């Protein structure tokens, strides 16, 4: 067992942990980043699959993500716009396909009115919320005690309007059924992007990608940290007191004054704390769970949909693949589609064989793009639910009533222990931008304490 001493230990080499470590090192503190995996990046993972570069994890950059954009500039990383020229596709409950332009799906006039009305109502509620403190919303407890699906039912009788608004939060973001999370949790998701209008605007929320892949952010941050990053070092035990902390892995023991736990909250219980965490933290971690989504990558010889004047953007709450986009890499002559299968639909297809699941998913894509979609040259499913050190995607959210009850203590330090993760962010919640923001804040709090 090797023993080392540092000022601060960071558990987790995702964007949040590496950002915190970078800021601490800039301030003159010594750090050790302990990562369970054999790679850095956490839920950012760019890999070569059968000769195709795929963003297995997070990938998009939106114009409001200041912290991420600053980091990209600092690291010298270039971005490019997601392809969006041409018409979008929508499939209704009857299976009828429509091509459209603009922000609102081609639905009956009354349904369109109801969709616009719901967006306006949600924007009003979001405007009353500080994403850093959603539990302070004047109706926080009330909104946290009603499911998002029940809230939608209380606002309109139009099923298609409810299905579409629900899709943007349930399928596209929290990746849980709309009956499984509260209206307050839905509002936080919208507030984290500035408004519900921003959240439903694909041209805003899915604006740009990074040339060469978004995992370059943690890779380059880790490169700067050098030997301070220790891979394959899952922390088994964390001993702590007011005097400091000791993190113990299978081959390393690190002593420090402080520790930042920068992993998804569902993984915190994987660490044995000596002494145990306080009652409040033990309870609140039990009320958080990961969502579940399959990110499907289909690479074709050419982006054939563009020949039909299609943007590649497709939506339907009634399809197995509820949303899909042109995900072609920068200056790549091949075409790539990315689609998403979320929550209960994802549960269902994982009862099938791999080949049956592939055919079901490709058949759903063909409903949008035609028979050519059935024959990709590369096909891959990002299944974060089977990742030992993630256990779901995109992020963790509270169960009914949990956000108002426990949210204020989610990032509250415990003695020398701080917490940092995109799952704990306000602005940028669930996104790399949020991971960077919280990482900066966790580091700044330690630096400020040291300065006293």
Question: Could you please describe the fold and organization of this structure?
Answer:
With 452 residues, this protein is an alpha/beta fold. It has helices at residues 15-26, 66-75, 109-127, 140-144, 148-155, 159-174, 183-191, 196-199, 202-205, 216-225, 279-285, 343-349, 354-369, 402-406, 432-451; strands at residues 2-5, 8-11, 31-34, 46-49, 52-55, 60-61, 79-81, 87-91, 97-100, 208-210, 229-230, 237-241, 244-248, 252-256, 258-261, 272-274, 288-290, 293-300, 310-315, 323-326, 335-342, 378-383, 396-398, 417-419. The strands form 6 sheets. Strands 9-8-19-20-21-18-22 form a 7-stranded mixed sheet. Strand 19 and strand 20 form a beta hairpin. The model has no long low-confidence stretch (mean pLDDT 97).
Q: Give the count of structural domains.
A: 3
Strand content: 15-25%
Helix tally? 15
CATH topology type of the largest domain: FAD/NAD(P)-binding domain
Identify low-pLDDT runs. Answer: none
What value does the average pLDDT take? 97
The Rg value, from CA coordinates, equals 22 Å
CATH class of the largest domain: Alpha Beta
**Would you report the number of β strands?**
24
Would you identify the CATH architecture of the largest domain?
A: 3-Layer(bba) Sandwich
User: What would CATH call the homologous superfamily of the largest domain?
Assistant: FAD/NAD(P)-binding domain
What gap, in angstroms, lies between the N and C termini?
Answer: 35 Å
Helix content range? 25-40%
* Cα shape: globular
Structural class: alpha/beta
């Amino acid at each position: 067992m090797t023993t080392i001493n540092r000022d601060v230990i960071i558990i987790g080499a995702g964007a949040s942990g590496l950002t915190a470590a970078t800021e601490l090192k800039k301030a003159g503190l010594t750090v050790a980043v302990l990562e369970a995996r054999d790679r850095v990046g956490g839920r950012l993972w760019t890999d070569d699959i059968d000769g195709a570069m795929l963003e297995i994890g997070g990938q998009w950059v939106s114009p409001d993500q200041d912290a991420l954009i600053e980091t990209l500039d600092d690291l010298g990383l270039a971005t490019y716009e997601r392809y969006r020229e041409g018409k979008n596709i929508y499939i209704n409950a009857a299976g009828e396909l429509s091509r459209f332009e603009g922000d609102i799906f081609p639905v009956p006039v009354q349904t369109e009115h109801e969709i616009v009305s719901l967006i306006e109502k949600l924007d009003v509620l979001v405007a009353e919320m500080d994403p850093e403190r959603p539990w302070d919303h004047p109706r926080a407890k009330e909104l946290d005690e009603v499911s998002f699906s029940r809230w939608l039912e209380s606002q309109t009788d139009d099923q298609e309007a409810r299905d579409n608004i629900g899709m943007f939060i349930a399928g596209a973001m929290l990746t849980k059924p709309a009956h499984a999370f509260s209206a307050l949790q839905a509002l936080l998701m919208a507030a984290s992007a500035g408004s519900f209008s921003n959240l439903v605007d694909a041209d805003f929320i899915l604006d740009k990608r990074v040339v060469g892949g978004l995992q370059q952010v943690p890779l380059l941050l880790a490169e700067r940290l050098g030997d301070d990053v220790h891979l394959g070092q899952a922390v088994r035990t964390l001993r702590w007191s007011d005097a400091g902390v000791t993190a113990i892995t299978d081959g390393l023991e690190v002593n420090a004054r402080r520790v930042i736990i920068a992993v998804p909250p569902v993984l915190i219980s994987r660490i044995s704390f000596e002494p145990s965490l306080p009652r409040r933290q033990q309870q609140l971690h039990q009320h958080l769970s990961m969502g579940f989504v399959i990110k499907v990558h289909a690479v074709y010889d050419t982006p054939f949909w563009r020949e039909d004047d299609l943007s590649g953007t497709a939506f339907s709450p009634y399809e197995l693949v509820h949303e899909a986009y042109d995900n072609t890499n920068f200056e790549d002559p091949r075409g790539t589609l990315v689609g998403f299968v979320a929550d209960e639909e994802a549960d269902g297809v994982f009862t099938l064989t791999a080949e049956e699941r592939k055919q079901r998913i490709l058949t759903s894509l063909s409903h949008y793009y035609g028979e050519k979609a059935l024959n990709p040259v590369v096909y891959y499913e990002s299944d974060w639910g089977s990742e030992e050190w993630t256990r779901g995607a995109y992020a963790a959210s509270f169960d009914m009533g949990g956000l108002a009850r426990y949210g204020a203590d989610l990032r509250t330090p415990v003695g020398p222990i701080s917490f940092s993760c995109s799952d704990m962010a306000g602005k940028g919640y669930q996104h790399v931008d949020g991971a960077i923001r919280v990482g900066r804040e966790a580091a700044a709090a330690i630096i400020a304490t040291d300065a006293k």
